[in-house]
């Protein structure tokens, strides 16, 4: 199984104040990108919450998604389009021979996605599941 859960706050830049016109154009580009993906399952959604745009992504696939529909690709694209954005994406790939028992945490900061070890949910066995 390939499980993923993430969010990102969309920001045009790392400045406290976004240019409203540029942000509107940016949000339109991101929404077009999301629409073009035709996300096959799970959740991929862009919404405005209390004046801030937020992206939500979550799903549980039988296998690792293809490049176009890969959650990390989405996060990376958001970072390219909106380099002030920030967020977290948790991923567990049970087919990964080395890391099948761990979640990986991917952070989006200033347009760059980096991978980190997960201290909260890993190792999945025995923290979340019993050994069979």
TrEMBL record:
<protein>
    <submittedName>
        <fullName>Imm7 family immunity protein</fullName>
    </submittedName>
</protein>
<dbReference type="InterPro" id="IPR028965">
    <property type="entry name" value="Imm7"/>
</dbReference>
<dbReference type="Pfam" id="PF15585">
    <property type="entry name" value="Imm7"/>
</dbReference>
């Amino acid at each position: 199984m390939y499980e993923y859960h993430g969010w990102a706050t969309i920001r045009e830049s790392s400045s406290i104040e976004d240019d409203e016109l540029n942000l509107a154009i940016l949000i339109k580009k991101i929404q077009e990108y999301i629409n073009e993906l035709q996300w096959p399952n799970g959740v991929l959604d862009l919404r405005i919450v209390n004046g801030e745009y937020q992206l939500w992504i979550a799903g549980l696939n039988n296998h690792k998604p293809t490049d176009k529909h890969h959650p990390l690709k989405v996060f990376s694209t958001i970072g390219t389009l909106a380099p002030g954005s920030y967020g977290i994406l948790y991923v567990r790939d049970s087919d990964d021979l080395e890391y099948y028992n761990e979640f990986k945490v991917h952070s989006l900061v200033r347009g760059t996605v980096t991978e980190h070890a997960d201290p909260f949910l890993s190792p999945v066995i025995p923290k979340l599941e019993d050994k069979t």
